[in-house]
Amino acid sequence: MRSSEALERRELINPPRIGVTAALREETELRAGNPLVRFVRTDLEYVKSVSEAGGVPVVIPPSVSLRAAEALLDGLDGLLLSGGPDLDPGYYGEGPIPELGTTIPTWDALEMTLLRLALKRQMPIFGICRGMQILNVALGGTLYQDMPSQLGAHVLNHWQVTPKCQSTHKVEVLDDSYLAKVTDRQTVEVNSYHHQGIKCLGDALTVAARSADGVIEEFESRDFSERWLMGVQWHPEGMRDIGSGHRNLFEAHVCAAERHVLRSAAA
Ligand code: MN
C-alpha cells in the first residue's frame, strides 16, 4: 500500500463498507420439485478483492425498492458495480439491435437507482465491465450495443474463452492519468469479456486507457477532488495474482471510500 498515512487512517476508523452489486440468475431445472429456482449471485472474486484491499464487502441483492436502496446507501461508503449482462439501450435512448444480448430489467433499474443516489452523495464508484458501461450511461454517455457488428472488422477479439487470470490484449495507459499513477504502468495486460463498449463518454469523465483498436478500456474522473469515479472494461478481480496493477485498483477505491467517510464525518 502506498503510504503510512493510509495505514494510520485505517487504525482510526472502521474499514469502509463497499456495496457490491449482485445479479439475479434463474435456473430452470427441477430442484426439489420447484420448476424455477432464482438465485442472487455475484462472483466471489469481487468480494475477495474488496476484502483484500481492506474494505468490507456488502453484497446488494438485485431487487430492492427505492426506499430500501436509500437505506442501503446510508450504510455504505463506496460502490462497486460488477460485471454482467447487457444494459437495456433504452437508458441511452436507443432501441435494441438484433445483436443485443440478454437484459435483466430489474437489475438495470436497481443499479441505475443506486448509481444516481451514490452520485448525488459523491460516493466513490468503481465500475467493472458492465459496471463501467452503466456508470457511463448514468452520466449521460452511450454504448455500442455490439462492437463486432457496429465497429467493423478492425476490432480486436474482446470476447475471450480462456480463464479470467489470462490476458487477451493490452491497453495503453495515458501518461499523467490517475490510472497511470495507481497501476504504475504505461501498458497493462488485461482479460476481455465484453461485446459492448463505450461510445460517447459521460459527463465529468476522461479516458485514460484504450486497446490498440481504439476501444475505451478505462475512464476516470476528470477531477478527483470533486469525486472519485473509475470504470474498467476488463476484470481486474480475476487478475489480482498476476500483477499489482490490478490489485491497486481495488486499494485505490477502498482508500477513496475511507476519505469519503472522513469527509462525511467532518461535514
Ligand atoms: Mn477488451
How would you characterize this protein structure?
There is one protein chain. Helices cover 32% and strands 21% of the residues. By secondary structure, the chain is of the alpha/beta class. It has a single domain (4-266), classed as Rossmann fold, CATH 3.40.50. The strands form three sheets. The protein has a nine-stranded mixed sheet with strand order 4-1-5-6-13-12-11-8-9, sandwiched between helices. A two-stranded antiparallel sheet has the order 2-3. Helix 3 (66-74) crosses helix 4 (105-120). The radius of gyration is 18 Å and the shape is globular. It starts with a helix and ends with a helix. 40% of the residues are buried. The model has no long low-confidence stretch (mean pLDDT 91). Manganese (II) ion binds at residues 158, 169, 192, 194, 211, 217, 233-234.
Largest sheet, spatial ordering of strands:
4-1-5-6-13-12-11-8-9
What's the CATH H-level superfamily name?
Class I glutamine amidotransferase (GATase) domain
Radius of gyration in whole Å, from Cα? 18 Å
> Helical region count?
8
What binds here, in terms of ligands, is: manganese (II) ion
Separation of the first and last Cα atoms: 27 Å
Strands, total number? 13
Nutshell version of this structure?
The chain is an alpha/beta fold and 267 residues long. It has eight helices and 13 strands.
